[in-house]
User: What shape does this take?
Amino acid sequence: MHSMKKNATITFVIQKLLLVVVGIFMFLPIYIALVNTFKDSGIILNEPLSFPLPPIFDNIRTVLDSPNTDLVQLYKNTFILVFAGTAITILVSSMASYFLARVKSRFSKVLRIYFLVGLMVPYVIIYLPLCILMRNTGIPFGVPSLIFIFVSGNIAFSTFMYTNFIRALPVELEESASIDGAGPFKRFWLILFPLLKPCTATILIFVGLGIWNDFQTPLLMGQVQTITVGIYTAVGPYSANWGVVFAYVFFAAAPVIVLYLLAQKSFVAGLTSGALKG
Amino acid sequence: MKKNKVSFGFALPAFIIYTGLLVIPIIMAFYISFFKWNGFTDMKFIGIENYANLFQDTRLGNSVQNTLIIAVTVIVVVNVLGLFLAMLVNKASKANNFFRTIFFIPFVLSAVAISFVWKSILSYNGVLNGLLEAIGQDSMIGNWLGQKGTALVCIIIVEIWKTLGYHMMLYLAALQTVPAELYEACTVDGGGHWNKFRNVTLPLIVPGMSVSVLMSIINELRIYDVIKIMTDGGPGYDTETIVYNIVSQGFTSNIVGYSSAIAVVLFIAIGAISVFVVTALGKKEVEM
Assistant: This one.
């Protein structure tokens, strides 16, 4: 009995120790980026772990004053893409799912599979043909076309989520409304769509964060100046002024980290529930 | 009555956007892959020559090998360690919540932000070497991102760091579906930790595990951002992955037909693996 207790204590200590070690590994890079944003670039390599006392704002100022990066423009482009991309995705996907979930026909079954295929597409296959397509049809590269490219890439996931969600809701609610003379359009927006809120929240976070963080798509589809592409071009592949690099990272990551800490549960649900239902 | 039916009109906007910007480009990629084309001059039909050439392409072979080394290592580590961590933080407590929060942060950040932070740590004139010098261990200073072996290890470490918290969360969600009574029953029967894990936990989290494994396979086979920023495929082609190879050939070298053929093969491979994992692990679930 005594040795069993001792064993349990040892196991407990080892478990906690492992958590702390992994915790340090996970947190240290974030800590390094954060404290060194507010230090003089000259001392970063000598004392990267020290606390920035007093904090120096030179790196932040360098980014704000840089003639090569218009931070306001980067944020503006990214916000428009996130907002419009997410809104249009939610609009068209929820409506399409209403058809897929409520109409039991061969055609709607085939259409559902047609939309599902998009879940498996490695996006790299799209970029070149899409560039050629846009060149040949004269559609200009830029924020507006990029919005619809993002929507097209998110329809598969969103219709999949919405269709499953709508199927789990009772049809009776809509039927009672149709007796009152409401057409399918009214029925969808007034009765069904508000009920989809939990699913919409998931898609909002999944799609919105995906667009905010995407690098490959805006880079290859016309070098649209989003926050990720802007930082990449501003820092340059070979720059080693780490203080300024950290300041750029700070501007890209800070909004996301703040939102995550405020709405942690929704973030985790939004980013994992899609996979769980797969 | 007919007015009351949900018509295809509801699905039309999604259908048009999805078809025009996703499906048609995929079909175009298949079509282009049978041509010799630089994207500008006349296309020349060459049948399956691009596909035949894939097998003699040593640069592509190297990028496939790199992708597989990264993928296999990361998939094993994030799934084993992810499950283990999930079991450690499964009980709700302040400390465990804290760890969950920390572990998940890297997954919400962009690969660009993450890669620049790790680049600042691992570069030759970076933080790690600075620290080694400060503590007088000059002999350990290395050009981590500039040498073949270590550069690939660095990429693997960053990928693990980025996705570990996500897989932990997937396992955590799976663990919470296991009813506590089953553990109690196992304890009554005299089962130890290993017994509980083997006979209760593992069989019940198989669905969650198949999802976690599948997501890690799909993510790692598509790895690009981290490579682009940390090593740009270098030194030489030493950290070049499949997707990096496709982008670099298609966009930089303008070998449009050939790079499309590689992309088509990758698409088919990911599709086949997805179907295989889902059916294989799906079967396992029933058997257990």
Notes: Chain B touches chain A through 94 residues (CB under 8 Å). The first helix of chain B runs from residue 12 to 32.
